[in-house]
Amino acid sequence: MTFAQQKPLNIVAVSGGLNHPSKTESLVQAIIDELAQATPINVHFIKFSEIGSLLGGAIYRNQLPQRVQDDLAAVEAADALIVGTPVYRASFTGLFKHFFDFVEQTALVDVPVLLAASGGSDRHALVLEHQLRPLFSFFQAQTLPIGVYATDRDFNKDYRVESEQLQDRITLAIARALPVLEWAPAKGQRAEAVKTKTQDANQNLGINKQIEQAEVLPSAAVPNLDAAESRLHQNKTQSIKTQVA
Ligand SMILES: Cc1cc2nc3c(=O)[nH]c(=O)nc-3n(C[C@H](O)[C@H](O)[C@H](O)COP(=O)(O)O)c2cc1C
Question: Domain NADPH-dependent FMN reductase-like spans what residues (predicted)?
Answer without folding.
Answer: 10-153
